[in-house]
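Morning F.,

Quick status update on the modeling queue. The single chain you submitted on Monday has been processed. Sequence for confirmation:
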Amino acid sequence: MVEWKVSPDPVAYEDALSEMESRAAAIREGRAAERIWLLEHPPLYTAGTSAKVEDLREPDRFPVHQVRRGGQYTYHGPGQRVVYVMVDVGARGRDVRRFVGQLEAWVIATLAEFGVTGELRPGRVGVWVVRPERPPAPSGAPAEDKIAAIGVKLTKWVSFHGISINVEPDLGHFDGIVPCGISDHGVTSLVDLGLPVTMADLDVALFRNFEGIFGEAPQIVGA
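Structure tokens below.
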């Protein structure tokens, strides 16, 4: 069984990390079910294993957490849906690339419910949207903004960390870092794209699309 948990109040990053690690260990040992955990964090930056010091533009703006997941600097805060994915990838075929592809497909299918075309780009982690109303890049390529980030960690084939999707965060908070090490593209959100989407709307779409991507329906548990 895959449990589906939604926390209604912001969760401190340290508390979330501790709970994720404990849950992942319990899953490995067969003591707990897999879990999808949806939450929001207070404003903070995280530094993945590939983070570069120079990409932290404002080190004193928000707390900075060093984390053992792939990727570089990311921002988490109110208005952003964070989805921690704690599943046994070993029992699901031991195919890490397929697992990451499922996360990407899940985000793209969810965004499509709101008429947003999410796209992947070689060499750029996450999900992107084209902004034809904006001036093109110096190369002549269409302007693009990132709407979702993906960063996972596997320990003995059990995953934790996961994805984040921007619903209505303060986009100015991203200015304190170079998000994911990419400085020549921007960041957007569903509301920034002109869509009156709420966190609850996104949660429903995430839940509805989970089974089609992962092959099983999650079971809702308490907060």
